Write the structure tokens for this entry.
Amino acid sequence: MVTETLATAVFTRTGPDRVAFAHSSFAAFLAARHLAARAAGPAPIPRRQLESFFLVDAPDEDTAAIPEHLRELAAWLLAHAPARTQWLADADPESLTAHTFVVTDPQIRRILVDGLLVRAERIELADRAWQHARWNLHHPGLADQLTAALTTASRDLHSQDRHLDEQHHEGGHWTQQARLTLALRLCAETRLPALADAVLDVVENKAVPVSLRQLAASTALTLDTTPTTITRLRAVLRDLADVTDRLGAAAVPGHVANHDRAAPTDDSPLELVATLLGLLWPAHLDFAEAVVHLRPGMPNLGMRYRVEVHAFAEGVADDDVAMLVEFTEQTLRDWGAVETDHDFDGGHGAGSGGEGGDGETAPGSADWVWVPQHLMHPTEAAELRTFALSVADRALRSPSARSLVGRVARMLLWFLRSSDRVRILAVIDVVRQDGSEPDAVRDLRRSLVEELLRAACAVSPAYRPYWTYRVLVGWRDAMPQPRRGLADGLEWGHRRRLLDHADADWAFSQARHHRPTDPVLAAAFHDAAETVSTPPEPTPAESTTTWDEAATFAAAQRARLQRAVAGDTTAFWTLVKHLGVNPATGRWEPIVERDVTDFVGAALWDPPELTARLREAAALYVTREHDHHHNWLGLESLDWRAYAGVVAVTVLLTPPTGAHHHRRHDAPDAHEEPDVPDHCWRHWVGALLEHAGRDPDTQRLVGLC
């Protein structure tokens, strides 16, 4: 019998005549079962003896703790004998929480939740690694238990006496904050809609710190997405409009020359505004409701508010783009206003005036007098530039791009006046796979050039050569963009100038066209044509549309895929690594995609062919390789073998339609189950956890494994 038992899958051979448990969980389960039987037997093990075995006292802790190597054993013991070993849950709840899928007794789970809340102050200051583990504290009274904790902590924060001794007050304040923080984290994990009302009360409580109101708002929408929750969150955002107005009024325009800025704070009410915008915009807010909370360029911005301001334009509907442009124009006017138009010379103040092509007041008129960027704090100028560029890109992507291009040009011109280079708009930085430019993109780009030159000549005709030069060369490459924003057969062009040698004839023709009616603009076009008519000598920094080694590279990649399908694991991870290389230019491009068929290097194959062959290769790679975590874990480095495993698992477990399955075997007719032995998936957990972070797609893959 002993021989037969040792031959089961519970054990594994570790050497000649040596066996060990195949997994520590087997040992923990069997040991706990033995201890539970002894605890309930006629001569039970004394509790004190068990306590001395499981609990270790520390001089700086009020209670004893369970050593890490005994925690799973303790959890199994609680599962086998909950009534007799409740003292384990009382002693060290945070150590057991990571193993609560084992502990199913409702009373023990209640004790664990109570214990966590009592120790919240210490837990929030210490390592919270257990919170990243898969745990389950559900029991019939959990909603009531957490509601009471939220209500008590929120009420105590609201009612604390401001006249108490400062040290005592701060200590009590932190205790309630910690308890409220932990309660909100537990609420988010429960996904119980019944908790939404109590969580929303926290959002509405102005005595609660901003960071906790942010956490509560996110938690509320996680718990419940019904109109009731949305309405209450919108009401909180609406009440914060006066905060945005007050802080925004102090920023412009009278303070533009003040360089003494306080450091950005993450506890500003604007951070709560940002969180609510992120949750509600654009699905649950119209443009008018949302835009009142934007103050681009305002100093003392926290990171969340800055991100939401920069991303706002992406959510604007086509029908609202004109209003977005109008808002941006007014923002630039506010930041650019000065006392009179005589404060600066003609190059920086009012120019010749005049009307733009669409009847709008042109830059340089008395109604729009700009402050040079060197008089503005660099942070403010950079924030305004980033926002204006996002608005410009959104406007030129809209159906009304042609009617808005003149206003977009006047917005961008202000940022071209300094020596800083402005990023090219992604909407005009698109080429076909052969390097040629689509006609619509070329026409839009040239329209922008014309409107920029028109606005520049209106600002100051005397400085026409300088403005023409800035319009031509005052740019840098666009921000990296995901390929899913492109139509089939298109790529990002990596353009660094608005005009190149191919535009010379067009620029000469525009000079001839405008000479009878606008000699200044005609001269600007002539200067531009002269500049680009002779192609510059290529330099290593210049963008190229062809690559001499393109054919060799393509052949090598196709060969790697062939070898990977045959089972060559080195070929697979090398293939994945080089999928980040543009096969037309040879440049490495950031990988910002989830779907491997959208990687820039995937252009060498038809998507169905690549998907089918990659699935074959990925199954072999996952089966035969592992993540080599001992080589990179804890180091700031990227191991391509591990990353290739993440890509392989993604290919195998993501349906071709993009729909998510809850389990690998859900709907085999829609997504064939990968031919990978079950034990092989665990070899990739380290890589998946490393790359998961807060990305829900990769976290889902961890759960599937």
About this structure: Residues 161-171, 253-264, 337-371, 657-671 have pLDDT under 50 and may be disordered. DSSP finds 31 helices and six strands in the chain. Residues 51 and 88 are 8 Å apart (CA to CA). Residues 2-132 form one domain.
